[in-house]
Design brief:
Helix content is 35%, strand content 27%. By secondary structure, it is of the alpha+beta class. It folds into three domains: 3-177, Nucleotidyltransferase, domain 5 (2-Layer Sandwich); 199-239 and 364-425, ATPase, nucleotide binding domain (Nucleotidyltransferase, domain 5); 241-363. The strands form seven sheets. Strands 1, 2, 3, 6, 12 and 13 form a six-stranded mixed sheet that branches. It starts with 20 loop residues before the first strand and ends with a helix. InterPro entries: ATPase_NBD, Heat_shock_70_CS, Hsp_70_fam, YegD-like.
Length: 438
């Protein structure tokens, strides 16, 4: 494994403020960000090393676990972010790649998972990720006051928001943070936006993550020491990952046999089980399909399928764990559609080569039901605050999904171009979390 997987990285411009160090951590479904706030309210976003020798202000929320022999014993090794991906690709069969941990926080049914010979709770896994993340800085958790973000509503059916926050706090405590505060993520983004205001304003903040989209309406007065006055919070359990799935469902899934039929005992043609393709909605679900039972089920169906080679491609995708490469290709296409009328989706694996053009018009049509749900979330926030759209002075959008033209249009059509502003694609929430603690 690369020595950087467990090594330390010291950002050359790091300036340590007086203890306790005030930091904000945006622990995201897809990416995580750390920001330091100094007493003079200046901020610094931590840069993380990347395998190509560069650096990034975001660290993918990925944890790789594997075992190595030392002194006749098998010891658990770990890596995070881009180095977790490298560790996984080096030996996918012997490495557990843990992803989308945040998505399980409010799910009471998920308590622990087997990792080699150990049973690890969700809190254990997140704490391990956080310790390794902090090891990439020259700050120890014990010397920090940390403010961590949480969504308005955690993702998942029957999500228990109180449980989600309790587990989040517990994970940070296990990681060694002695002083932990929690703030709604859109409220944190609002704190960052407040730095731009020179007069009182009622602000709608839209925070678009990987798994959730949150809306907060707040009243800001730059001249007041009381900060933000929250007026309404709502959340919708869909965001960037759902938009990715729309591309997968409409473009990729047909190549993997979704539209095939098969026969039982020579009977009438039957559709292949659609639940296999629903699992493509999230790449962590795809990894859960990598069991002998499910792989054998797909192989059995393939024997009498109308297009067996497509189902064999699905087996290859799951068994050889090509999910990350697929989702990277899909995400790249989605990003390209934010600035172009069409984009190419290119993905290949043994036995499968996809190269097709996706138009923005088609993409907009596919995500239309999701845009409608986002609109309902905005309406709920306005209703909760007892405000009409014309009473909103400014709109601040943050997160990668805010750059999707259909999302931006949703806000400009309601509030006008002049009131809508885009923030830092990935760092605004963490910046606000850090500033809120100063």
């Amino acid at each position: 494994m690369d020595s950087m997987a467990s090594g330390h990285y010291f950002p050359p411009t790091m300036i340590i403020s007086a203890r306790p160090i005030q930091i904000g951590i945006d622990f995201g479904t897809t990416n995580s960000v750390i920001v330091i706030a100094r007493p003079d309210r200046t901020i610094q976003t931590i840069s993380f090393p990347t395998p190509d020798g560069g650096s990034s202000q975001t660290c993918p929320t990925l944890l790789a676990l594997w075992q190595e022999m030392e002194g006749g014993r098998r010891l658990l090794q770990r890596a995070v972010g881009a180095y977790a991906v490298e560790a996984h690709l080096d030996d996918p069969s012997e490495t557990r790649l843990i992803m989308s941990m945040k998505s399980y926080l409010a799910q009471a049914s998920f308590r622990e998972t087997q990792v080699f010979s150990q049973r690890l709770s969700l809190e254990n896994l997140i704490a391990t990720f956080l310790r390794e993340l902090m090891a990439l800085t020259d700050i120890t958790p014990a010397e920090c006051h940390v403010t961590v973000g949480r969504p308005v509503h955690f993702v998942g059916e029957n999500a228990d928001n109180a449980l989600g926050e309790a587990r989040l706090r517990a994970a940070f405590t296990q990681a060694g943070f002695a002083d932990v505060a929690v703030m709604m993520e859109p409220e944190a983004a609002g704190w960052r936006f407040m730095q731009r205001l020179d007069r009182p304003a009622t602000v709608l903040v839209g925070d678009f993550g990987g798994g959730t989209s949150d809306f907060s309406i707040m009243r800001f007065d730059p001249a007041s020491n009381q900060g933000a006055q929250p007026l309404g919070h709502t959340g919708v359990g869909l965001a960037g990952d759902q938009f990715d799935f729309r591309i997968i469902d409409n473009v990729v899934a047909p190549y993997l046999g979704r539209d095939c039929t098969f026969r039982i005992m020579g009977g009438e043609p039957l559709p292949v089980p659609i639940e296999w393709y629903h699992s493509l909605a999230r790449w962590h679900r795809l990894s859960l399909m990598r069991t002998p039972r499910i792989l054998n089920e797909i192989a059995d169906v393939a024997r009498t399928a109308s297009e067996p080679e497509k189902l064999k491609s699905l087996i290859e995708l799951i068994r050889e764990q090509h999910g990350q490469e697929l989702y990277n290709a899909v995400s790249a296409t989605k990003r390209a559609l934010s600035s172009a009328e069409s984009a190419e989706l290119s993905y290949s694996q043994p036995g499968l080569d996809i190269k097709t053009t996706v138009s923005r018009a088609d993409f907009d049509r596919w995500i239309a039901p999701d845009i409608a749900k986002l609109g309902e979330g905005i309406d709920q926030a306005l209703s909760q605050a007892s405000l009409a759209p014309e009473q909103i002075d400014r709109v601040f959008l943050t997160g990668g999904t805010s750059f999707v033209p259909a999302v931006r249009q949703l806000f400009t059509s309601r509030f006008g171009e002049d009131r809508v502003e885009l923030g830092g694609e990935f760092v605004s929430v963490a910046e606000g979390l850090a500033l809120a603690s100063v």
